[in-house]
Each structure stands twice: as C-alpha cells, then as structure tokens.
Amino acid sequence: MRRIALKGYFRDNTVVNVYPVYKTKGTSSTAVLREYGQLHNLKNIMHAGALDPLAEGVLLVVDGVSNVDDIRPLINSHKTYQFSGVLGFTTDTWGILGIIQSLGNFNAFKDLQRKEITEENIARVISSYQGKIEQEVPIFSNMRYRNKRMYQWAREGKAYLVPRLIRERFVYEIRLDSFELVLVADLFEQIISDLSLVTGDFRQEKIIQFLKTVVPPILDRFGKDFTLPVFTITATCEKGTYIRSIVHSIGDRLGFGAVTRSIKRTQVGEYSLDDCDRLE
Fold first, then answer.
1. Which tens digits make up the pLDDT trace of 42-80?
2. Which residues touch 38 (CB under 8 Å, ≥6 apart)?
3. pTM greater than 0.90 (yes/no)
4. Neighbour-count burial of 38, counting CB atoms closer than 10 A to its CB (0-12 exposed, 13-18 middle, 19+ buried)
5. Nearest to residue 150, comparing CAs of 93, 207, 189?
6. How far apart are CA 155 and CA 242, in angstroms?
7. CA separation for the pair 126, 253 (Å, rounded)
8. Residue 105 CB coordination number (10 Å)
9. Lower CB count within 10 Å: N or C terminus of the chain?
10. Which residues pair with 167 in a beta bridge?
11. Distance separating alpha carbons of residues 84 and 264, to the nearest angstrom
12. Would the CA dihedral through 38, 43, 47, 52 be positive or negative?
C-alpha cells in the first residue's frame, strides 16, 4: 500500500496520509473509499474528488482528517483526463450511463460525415475550449439546488424544476488524441459490456434493455456497415470541470449531438496513475 505523508500542506499544518487509488470502471467512488478503508483499517477517511461510476483512474483517499476544509488545497488541484465521445445521439446524463434522448439525423449524418465530420473540423472545435469556458452543469450531477443533489431531482422526475446552471471553468490544455469511425454494432456491444460492470442502482439494466431495442432498427435501416465517429481527447482543467458537459457541448457545436463514451482521470495535482494503489 502506498502511503504519502504530507506535512504543512493542509490547514493548521496537519499531517495527513494521502493514498492514490486506481478506481476501476463500474464502482462508485464511495464504494472504493469504503472498501479501501476496510482493507487497510483506515479511520476518518474521505476522497478528494469523486469520479462517475463508469469513470476510472486516480482517486485520492485521505485519512486523518475530519473536515473537508482540511484538504481543500488537494481538492482544488488541477486534474487531467483522457476521455472519448461519440457523435450521433444524446442521453439524459450526457454519458453512456443514461437513457437516449435523441438520435441524430442519420440520413444526413451518413451523407455528411465524410465531408464535415472530419478530424480537422473536430480538432478545430476542441481547441476552442482551451482557456476560460462557460459550461452547463449536467442535471445528473452532485451539484446542489435548494439543498438537494441535482441527480436526486432528476431521479424523482423533477428535472424540469431545476434551472440551467452555468459555471465558469478554466481548461489549461486540451487536445484531440484520435478520431475514428466505429461500426455501430461494435460500438454498442462495447457500451453494453461496460454498462454490465456497473454496481449499485444507476438504471443500468433499464439502459441496457433500451439499447438492445434501439440498435437493431438502426442496423436494419442503415446497414451493418454504418459507423459513428468516436473522438478521444486529453484535457487538463480546473477542479469542478464536467467532462460530460464538454462532450455534450462539442456535440451541440457540430450539430449532431454527442455523449461521453469513457473517462479516465490520469492525474490529480502531483499524483498520477503511476502512484496509484489497486484494490484487485
């Protein structure tokens, strides 16, 4: 088990232990925190920034503190992510762990993707997100509105009562890593496989069943060779930046909608994947 003691970094010069842990796909950050604490008999632990259930990568577990303000500098550290998005549809969560809300105009999409949805055009759009940005907070998020988490409003079917929340964030660096066209059948097979990893109640079974009914008609109409564009991005950004919001906004800019396919947090402040302990 890696243990990194930091002295004088936190409030009142408290000495705390920071454990960089690799969170795998499917588990919640809370579950990782609980399992890691039980495994190593740690008390008074908390994490310094949650990851979505299907996100993976660096999760900082801290013990020896009783108040989140004690580790505020750690929480406020910049973060680096590698993530991918799929053009052509949207969901209510803006990620694959969500119910499909709209499908792109696939007739136009099939004709235009070779002309307009190019690596050069996507790279140009992505580069515009470097610097100060305004982003909408996803309704499925931990942000609070009237003393209730936004995802709780959404799960209760009351998302319409929550106004659009716009926040400024800073993206220090962002780049397009790759762009490819992926067969729809292969893409959704991979998505369903990832969804099957999710533990807890995140509607995953309902989403899987819905996808299984949506994909066959698409293949029947557009053929088994029909593809959707998938792009991969690396970005270093201010704390509290929603990756799903960036991908959703890119989809809006390109006119076809987009969802976040995957997220990997590769660094939090000075801690990287190489520093991480694993639960397996």
1. 888 889 989 999 999 999 999 877 777 778 888 889 999
2. none
3. yes
4. exposed
5. 93
6. 19
7. 10
8. 14
9. C
10. 135
11. 9
12. positive
Query: pLDDT digit string (tens) for 47-56?
Result: 998 999 999 9
The answer to whether 248 and 138 have CB atoms below 8 angstroms apart is yes
DSSP code of 137? P
Contacts with 11 (C-beta within 8 Å, 6 or more apart), sequence order: 69, 70, 72
Continuous H helices in the chain: 29-40, 72-75, 106-112, 119-127, 150-155, 184-195, 204-222, 243-254
φ/ψ of 266, rounded to 5, equals -95, -15
Interval 264-279: pLDDT, tens: 999 999 999 999 999 8
Closest to 279 in 3D by CA, of 52, 62, 31, 35: 35
For the chain, the C-alpha Rg in angstroms (whole number) is 20
Q: Which amino acid is at 130?
A: Q
The answer to whether residues 83 and 265 touch, using CB atoms and an 8 Å cutoff, is no
**Side chain identity at residue 79, one-letter code:** K
d(CA 266, CA 71): 20
The CA-atom distances, in angstroms, between 249 and each of 39, 146, 229, 237, 257 are 40, 26, 16, 16, 8
Dihedral angle of Cα 88, 89, 93, 99, to the nearest 10 degrees: -150
Which tokens in the block code for residue 15?
């000495």
Structure tokens at 197: 């990893």
